[in-house]
Amino acid sequence: MKAKVLVVALVVTTFSFTKINAQINLGEKAMGALQSGVASFTFSDEDAAAISKEAVRKMDSTNTVAGPKDGYTLRLNRIFGKHANENGLKLNYKVYLTKDVNAFATADGSVRVFSGLMDIMDDNQLLAVIGHEIGHVANHDSRDAMKVALRKAALVGAISSQSDKVAKLTDSQYGQLASAIVDSKYSRKQESEADDFSYEFLKRNKYNVNAEESAFAILANMSGGTSADFLSKMMSSHPDPQDRADKARARATADGLYKSYVQMKFSNKATTTTTKKTTTKKKKK
Questions:
Q1: Which residue has the higher pLDDT, 207 or 100?
Q2: Annotated catalytic residue: which of 133, 191, 193, 213?
Q3: Among 69, 155, 200, 281, which residue's beta carbon has the most beta carbons within 10 A?
């Protein structure tokens, strides 16, 4: 993968990534607007969606995306395709082929799942993670994260000075914005609210709600192994995964739905069916 992560509406897990080091000189006006805080800067869901769409396009072009016949794509289609229009959101989704364990959703409804996550979680656990990501979009967290990223990338002045319309940025500016978004993090409150959304998503669609606890338990177990270094990077802003697992269990218990979850079998391989050719023997005359 050429650049592991360019834009991330940060998720249940924010693990390894490569920052873009390019710097952009936007001039005194943009920097002055940034330094003043741009208190009057307004930024709608539509604005965030427009910029996110282009940023994700940039990211798709620099990552290895699973093809339509790839086993990862086929599996994601099977388990998530029915939710492409969820909670009034029009979602598009793809798989990035990378060992990184991650998933994210952006303000324009783009959902990206890393194959490394699909290698360790079954269908219900994946849906719990994806449901969490949809929660960030539905709760407007993705819009707010984009606004913060614009400030960090010193692009607020460039955008807010364009007759109150969001300007189209250059590819290099989208890259700089992406780096800022990678650095941004959701608050513990936002993460907890997205966890609640995930639970209700599973419950509403009649999935096993206990998969949420199980998914967080997997991440908690990872923190004690080789993943400890990059897991620790998210702990300052993200609630502890074991604490989140405990809260998911408490929700299921309160609803009378708790039962210890056993991970289901799953495969990311494309299954092919072969048809045998039948030959008709000619009768001897």
A1: 207
A2: 133
A3: 155
